[in-house]
Structure formats: C-alpha cells, structure tokens
Design goal:
Length: 150
C-alpha cells in the first residue's frame, strides 16, 4: 500500500466515522406504545455502534502501523493491510445497519471474519499501541455475529 492509498483510506474513514457516530448515538426506535423496540433492531443498533467504534480504533491502528512501516518496521505492514480492510468493511456494515438492508447478514459475516483476522494479526505484533484495536475488533466481530445469527 502506497502513501497515497493510505491517506485516501484515512480520509474516507474519517468521513464515514462522523456519519456512523451520529447513527450510533441515536436512541433506539420506539414502537407505537412508546416502548423501545426489542429483538433484531437492538442488535442492529449494537452492531452499528460496534462497527463505528472499530472503524475509529482501526483508523488509529492504521496510522500507527503506517508510521511504524515508514520508520523501517516492516513487520507492521501486514497489520496495516488488515486495518485498512477492517476500516472498509466496518464502514459498509455500519451503513447497511443504518438502513436495515436485506443484505446486512452477508456484510455482518464478512465484517466479523475481517475483524477477527485484524485482531489476530495485531495481537501477533505484541504492540501495546494496538490493544484498543484488538479489543474493538473483537467486540465488532461479536456484534456482527449476533446480527448474522438473528
């Protein structure tokens, strides 16, 4: 991944994150009796929040890995790619959550797998700066699997 692609990924993820943060901050929908909707819509809200958080943490980890690679620590390059992939899939998945897309279960499965791979790759490096990314990826994968299973 060249520097131009890296900066493009960071820019796109920043714009997407702002949109998803506002989505995730909305209260849960209410039914006609004023009660919060339960069931699948709750897990979709949780998934949107987890994807937004993961997008943020993967963006931070991406920047960290980019700096490490630029400084000669080439072992961070594979993690850099996994973070970029997670950024893309979390962004797409959160957008599909926002409109309760009929294709959401497909996106959630892909996002969960990608986030699991990202967490595993980040963990292999043993870099404390990647801890938040690892945790966010695991939460996101769990939330995506919950939506996929429902």
């Amino acid at each position: 991944m060249n520097r131009r692609q890296a900066l493009s990924t960071i820019g796109a993820s920043t714009a997407a994150l702002a949109a998803f943060r506002s989505l995730a901050a909305r209260p849960a929908p209410e039914d006609a009796h004023g009660a919060h909707a339960a069931g699948r819509s709750g897990s979709i809200e949780e998934c949107a929040r987890a994807c937004a958080d993961c997008l943020l943490e993967c963006s931070r980890a991406f920047k960290h890995c980019l700096d490490q690679v630029a400084g000669g620590r080439k072992e961070h390059s594979k993690c850099l790619e996994h973070c970029a992939d997670s950024i893309e899939l979390c962004s797409s998945c959160a957008a599909l959550c926002g409109r309760a897309s009929p294709s959401l279960h497909h996106a959630c499965e892909a996002c969960a797998r990608c986030c699991e791979d990202c967490a595993r790759e980040c963990e292999l490096l043993g870099d404390p700066a990647l801890k938040a990314c690892i945790e966010a990826c695991r939460r996101c994968a769990k939330a995506c699997r919950a939506v996929h299973a429902s």
